[in-house]
Amino acid sequence: MDIKLQNEEWKLKMRVAGCIVKDNKVLCAQMCENKFLCLPGGHIEFGESTKEAVIREMKEEVGFDCKILNLICVIESFYQAKDKKVHEICYFYLMEPLKNIVTQDYIREENDKGELKRIKFKWVELENLKKVDFRPQILTDKLAQKNWAFEHKIYNELK
């Protein structure tokens, strides 16, 4: 069961995302219902560490096994989504595929707890991240500069 808590006004989401960089490009995901790009990942489940979650989520979403290189960022985001305010905490890990991969765009379907989700994967040049609708935007400079040192960032759209 995913870690999601909510009351009448707020929703809390705990997430992980994996950053795969090859040939100066980063692997981005576009969920069919979204217009924007993001790093592949998903919710942390109860009883699961963030490391276990990112390894599981990367296998489920991108379709191949990855290993963790290091935790590069934790971002706390506050934003409005439909009828609730959202407090999202996401752990971003630098990942390395356990097999040789090519930097070609592809489409995959993921069975997410019985719901089929279509995901478009696109390789984006690191320096072009600011030119596309990539979220969270607060992460684009860090990725473009290949700054793999750990940071904690807070992004608040509600203020």
Please give a structural write-up:
The protein has 159 residues and is mostly beta strands. The chain has one domain (4-156): Nucleoside Triphosphate Pyrophosphohydrolase. Helices cover 11% and strands 50% of the residues. It has two helices and nine strands, in the order E-E-E-E-H-E-E-E-E-H-E.
Q: How do the strands and helices of this protein lay out in sequence?
A:
Blueprint: E1 4-6, E2 10-22, E3 25-31, E4 41-43, H1 50-62, E5 66-81, E6 84-97, E7 106-112, E8 115-125, H2 140-144, E9 151-156
Parallel strand pairs: 2-6, 5-9
Antiparallel strand pairs: 1-2, 2-3, 2-4, 3-8, 5-6, 7-8
Explain briefly what this protein structure is:
The chain has a single domain, classed as Alpha-Beta Complex (Nucleoside Triphosphate Pyrophosphohydrolase), CATH 3.90.79.10. Helix content is 11%, strand content 50%.
